[in-house]
Amino acid sequence: MAYMSSLPSLPSLPDEIVHQILLYVPPEETLSNVALTSRRFHRVAQEPLLWRSYCEDTFKYWDASHHFKERLRANAHRTNWKRLFLLRRKGNADIARLVDGIVASRVFRLQKMEQICRYGYDAKDYLLSQCRIPDSVDDVLARRYYSCSVLDSIHRSLAIEEWAKYQKYAARRIAENTPNSEQLNCGMRLERALGAFDMFMLHDNEGDMDEITELLDDIAARFRNSQTNLDQMTTRQKAIALARWLHSNNMTGLNDPTEQTYRYLRNCLIGRALRDEHHPSLPIISAAIYSAIASRLGIEAYPCALPSHVHATVLSPPDMSLDGHPLPEEESQRQESMFLDPYGSDEEVPLDYIYNFLSRLGTHTAHESLLQPTATDLIVMRTAQNIRASFSSFRTNERPLSQLIPMIELNRGDWARNLQPALYSMLWASIMMIPLLSENDEVRWDWQQDVRDLRAYFYEHFPEDSWLVEKYVCPMYDSFAGPSRRQNNWELPSKRVRDQIRDIRLADATPKPPRRRKDLAPDVQVKYRVGQVFRHKRYDYHGLILGWTAEGVSAWDHNPLLPAQRPWSNTSQPFYRCMVGTDGSDHHVIAEENIEVLELYGGPEVLPSEIKDLMPMAGKFFKRWDSEKGVFISNLKELFPED
Question: Full-prediction pTM beyond 0.85?
Answer without folding.
Answer: yes
